[in-house]
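Lecture notes, unit on protein representations.

Consider one protein chain, 92 amino acids long.
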Amino acid sequence: MQANDNHYFVYICGGTPDKNLQIGTAGNLQKHLQQMQPQNTTQPQKLVYYEHYDREAVALAREKQIKENSTNDNHRLIESMNPNWLDLSDLL
């Protein structure tokens, strides 16, 4: 596999700013998001932020950095890309 075939995503999922955020890393983000969705829910998790990397170690380091941020810092990060907290999963 060539280096440019590697895809790693750091993501943040959440419904609204007042809900808990889920931060993680995935190689296949679309598939991961499908598996994350709880069954029989009226408010599924939305992908509200993501970053793409071609090296797993860089993605994991960034995930750790985001997890160490304060909630307010993470809200600002999300709003820098997605001010209305829309579901970005259709953009993948």
